Amino acid sequence: MSHPRPIKLGILLGSLRRGSFHGAVARALPGLAPDGVTISQLPSFRDFPIYDADIQAEGIPGPVELLAEAIRSVDGVVIVTPEYNYSVPGGLKNALDWVSRLQPQPFAGKPVAIQSGSIGPIAGSRAQYHLRQIMVFLDALVLNKPEIMIGTIQSKLDETTGELSDETTRGFIGKQLEAFAAYVRKVG
Amino acid sequence: MSHPRPIKLGILLGSLRRGSFHGAVARALPGLAPDGVTISQLPSFRDFPIYDADIQAEGIPGPVELLAEAIRSVDGVVIVTPEYNYSVPGGLKNALDWVSRLQPQPFAGKPVAIQSGSIGPIAGSRAQYHLRQIMVFLDALVLNKPEIMIGTIQSKLDETTGELSDETTRGFIGKQLEAFAAYVRKVG
Amino acid sequence: MSHPRPIKLGILLGSLRRGSFHGAVARALPGLAPDGVTISQLPSFRDFPIYDADIQAEGIPGPVELLAEAIRSVDGVVIVTPEYNYSVPGGLKNALDWVSRLQPQPFAGKPVAIQSGSIGPIAGSRAQYHLRQIMVFLDALVLNKPEIMIGTIQSKLDETTGELSDETTRGFIGKQLEAFAAYVRKVG
Amino acid sequence: MSHPRPIKLGILLGSLRRGSFHGAVARALPGLAPDGVTISQLPSFRDFPIYDADIQAEGIPGPVELLAEAIRSVDGVVIVTPEYNYSVPGGLKNALDWVSRLQPQPFAGKPVAIQSGSIGPIAGSRAQYHLRQIMVFLDALVLNKPEIMIGTIQSKLDETTGELSDETTRGFIGKQLEAFAAYVRKVG
Prior knowledge:
4 copies of one chain form a homotetramer.
Chain A: E1 7-13, H1 21-32, E2 37-41, H2 53-58, H3 62-73, E3 76-82, H4 90-99, E4 111-117, H5 125-138, E5 141-142, E6 148-150, H6 167-187
Parallel strand pairs in A: 1-2, 1-3, 3-4, 4-5, 4-6
């Protein structure tokens, strides 16, 4: 029996807060990956300047180059992000704006999966559809389903360790990673 | 005959580039304001850090306080912005994310008008509808019409001075400011 | 002490199914209205043809005229609708398309509130933001908050009578109607 | 040298008007198809009832079955549509709502390309992004680029014949069909 092609995924985390709920989701992903899939965190956008074409003209900042190169080096990107004010966090959008200016553009033809959550029930879904529209311009290939939207995300973490412990949520995420691996192997 | 109540508007500019086309639009607004309306630029978000709740916990950064206070002090905000990657520029969204965390929240009940442009024909309209969705959460009161979407914006500027010279565009903007002034007087 | 101006609201129901969950929400509204507010159902779009400008050229269909006139006669419209396929039900959109062609356009300057629900947790929110974008073109004045999104809507109805019995949901809806009445009195 | 796999595309037209500009675009597509690609019109949704689950319970209407079966029989769908009121025409949405209820769901895994136009410059783009969101739920595979948005569409037709004569527009459409054929061969 043949083994499926091994693939490497990178996680782009939309939140910077140390105790971020989405950080906990991101940390859980390697343990939920199907066979043949390795997942690791992409470099943070923490030290990106606010995008300004005048800065770009002076040279691409190091942290931008680093993230762009890391995205290029993986077979697919999993964006794990909260929703801020009914849309994509400004920091995450700023990161996408920066890397989109580099050539070769890192997201062109890149498979992408999205995971979001919120402390309320709507679970960041509004941010996901804005992200999908952004990804049309970037020419990324965004997985349709299953969508991961984690409502009342704070209740899905272990109270002591802060890690993602809810088995139902872990199961859903595992299913998305499986579907994403198949998608990456097909379209990537 | 009674005079309409004088109103003060502030411009929130979505671009940082020195030679920004949208900067030219912003500079034109005071000269296009109807009687009784004064318009000035709000402080830039240039020096905002990327939003991080841990930074917020240590204290609101000065430039954030400054913008928030300036928004509170005007009767209405005109957002003049390019579109980046089919959505709101990350820097502008980051600014909205920051000021939305302050109390009293500066956009709550605040009248807002939107102007965008692009070098192509779609004229930033995709960014406008994302902005409108964001403004629902912020509870701002966004003017419906007329919408200002400036296609091939580079061709609407004077080649020598770089200022907004296209009379048709100036006329449209004047009409929006007139409608916005009436809206501010009604709902503000 | 002066009494607030009495206002009349009309409900536009997005679903045609006899046993519609949203029909139950619509039936609950009159009983949840604040003092001075009367609410009644607007005529259905059940007998609207699919929009076709050739049909329009032959004369506006009777049911379209009827709905348009009913919308014009109320002080505000409450749209109560499910979400179909991550957007507005085609039937509801078709109704909006038809009435938008009449002069005076019924939604111009008309206050609108939105309520949606779904059997899942996302509660029709995706349909709401598409509706809001549509309402920009129609120049309606859509209430920002509170938003009514009823998750697991089937569990909020009385099992025997099928009526909206969940007290928390009824309370939220009452709050929206109160906010909407104040909004109508201000902007309508 | 091997020949690429022949593929069959179907056009879903969003407008019913006899003299529809988008009908002219649809009629041009077969003549713009790359080698190995045949394109024909899918059945109209003209005779669809407004979606009502009670009607569905009595049996799927014939025209719905016909369109669903036709979609299943092609390798990809090209949606050619105007924008009504900043979104998808109600008639087209109603058609999608109906066919989405059938099993196997016709759009699941189906490649889709979108073309829109308008008499103004924004060219129906607002309808395209709503369509894309709908297609996430339907699990269709929507081509990213090139996007076809035909501004001032009336000026792109031959004044005498009413057919799509503008060579630039025809060229863009040919490029999209080429990209779509490659996409269908890859993901379909």
